[in-house]
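Changelog note: in this version the structure field was regenerated for every chain. One regenerated record is shown below for reference.
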Amino acid sequence: MSICFEKLSHEYSPGTPFAFLALKDINLTFAEGKMTAIIGATGSGKTTLVQHLNGLLLPTEGRVTVNDHVIEAGKKYPKIKDLRKGVGLVFQFAENQLFEETIIKDVSFGPKNFGATEEEARERAVRSLKIVGITEDMFEKSPLELSGGQKRRVAIAGILAMRPRILVLDEPTAGLDPQGAANMMELFKRINKENGITVLIVTHNMEHVLDYCDEVVVLGKGRLLMQTDISTFFENEEYMKKAGIDPPSIVRFKRFLKEKGLELPADVLSIEELAAEIAGRYRR
């Protein structure tokens, strides 16, 4: 599904003393089938932006297009439910949304709410739970019996069961330990590659941006500052400083090596590539 923002602005509490312009004249198109990070300082408008994708927020000015759905400022949109079938939005601490008696019932709820039969909903739930690594022997357990990471996987399975073509994740690894966070990011990458789902991730974790994403969108004070591929972004030291972004450890290490006289190619962005490049130079 294609995603395009055109001259989009969003103001909270317009016409009141508390009015706040959170997004300002955003022109942005997301690449279909890619895994894109949306980054920026706290308050830059990241969450406000992604909540326009399934109609949780509506434009104050401009419009947003998601495939054949066009939502324009000042106009009612009667097909919000259809839009939400195609855009799955996973909030921070999504596990807090679990409420059914069993895991399988919880994951089946979404498809049934959108018109699937009991049998169809269960089939989708089983498929989605397997994708996220929840085994069949756990299906009848209460969600309350699960670990934090397992609960989050079940919550994500509930979104996948509705068969979205776009998956939007707002700080999806918040509160997880490093291994749990890495496992979660591997899951999103697999969903993106194996299922062809466009994945948008709001995150502050630059290591995750570097290791898992294809492109990056940078917001600052409600404006679009930059949209580019990962390699180009992490080449741009001055821009990262301007955006208040702390680079990943490998980027900082490459800068250290450059200061010591060893400059490495811009596309060397993993430990394995860095080690191979240094070893090759010494062999020569």
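Spot check on this record: The chain has a mean pLDDT of 90. The longest strand covers residues 20-30.
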